[in-house]
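Structure tokens
________________
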Amino acid sequence: MNSGNKKHVFFRADGSNRLGTGHIMRCLTFAQWLKKKGMASVLVMKDYDQNIINLSRGNDCGIEILSKKSNFIEDANMTVDLANKYCADVIISDMNNTDTLTRVKEYRKYLEILKNDNKFSIVIDGFGSECISAKTRIPSDIIVIPYFGSEDGIYMSRDKTQYLLGSKYFIFREEFIKVAKIKRNIKKNASNILVTMGGSDPFRITIKVVKALSCIDKPFLNLKVVLGAAFDSQAKKEAKA
């Protein structure tokens, strides 16, 4: 992709069977909104899962891939180089996952490298025990914690950092917003059941739910199971059995 002289908004997020796909989908949804406003975006992600990469390429956002073997420092430096290539002044980091939660100091250093390159930094953080800004001072211009109840949290304050707290900042995909506006008649007795655990399911909850539902002695039930892009082959095989 030729960046030319057009400025871009940069997103940094990862997804895999273990990490899930929520961070990736949230960034892609944000990128779709930015495109409607005439702004271009680039999502930087590691090569954890080719299915997730393929899914990401089908959206209104440029994609750049980093090696999954790169450490935090290498990752940060490559991200900064790419941001400069695309003339990006804004970097949105949606990296609150199982890796960063166990390596908070390294993640903070990562964010410091991004901020020290004079980028406007936005960090999307987690909630409760998964909230990194409650554990350390995050070097960011804006910290977004888009969950119900986050307004009451205690966070490590930092000069000139703005907090956007609460569910009003949650990023919903457009198709969900459209469906929510449709008036529905809820049946007293269910005949259709949809089972979905998101983009991945490392704990095999889908299989447990499907097996439990199969024990219900109601042959008129229509069961539909959605398998996300990051489901492994064994989970797909078990769900279809």
